[in-house]
Amino acid sequence: MKDKELRKLIGSRVKQRRLELNLTQPYVAEKMGVTASTILRYENGSIDNTKKMVLEGLSEALHVSVEWL
């Protein structure tokens, strides 16, 4: 799987889970210490450097494992 495809897949899963939990982008952003626009960029797959630390923060905020993302 190419990096761009992987970013899109992770982003769609982040958005799916956020919506399942009825969480807003600003809420998730606050939990991670980033801006809501950063969460939007993660969700649409436009951030190139999705590091392990970011995935851990997203998984914690969304109550899923890093592997699920």
UniProtKB/TrEMBL annotation:
User: Where do the TM regions start and end?
Assistant: none
Give all residue intervals belonging to the HTH cro/C1-type domain.
Answer: 14-69
Under InterPro entries, the record lists:
Cro/C1-type_HTH, Lambda_DNA-bd_dom_sf
What top-level branch of life does the organism fall under? Bacteria
Q: What is this protein called?
A: XRE family transcriptional regulator
Q: Which Pfam families match?
A: HTH_3
Q: Which organism is it from?
A: Dorea formicigenerans
Output the PROSITE patterns linked to this UniProt entry.
HTH_CROC1
The GO terms describing molecular function are:
DNA binding
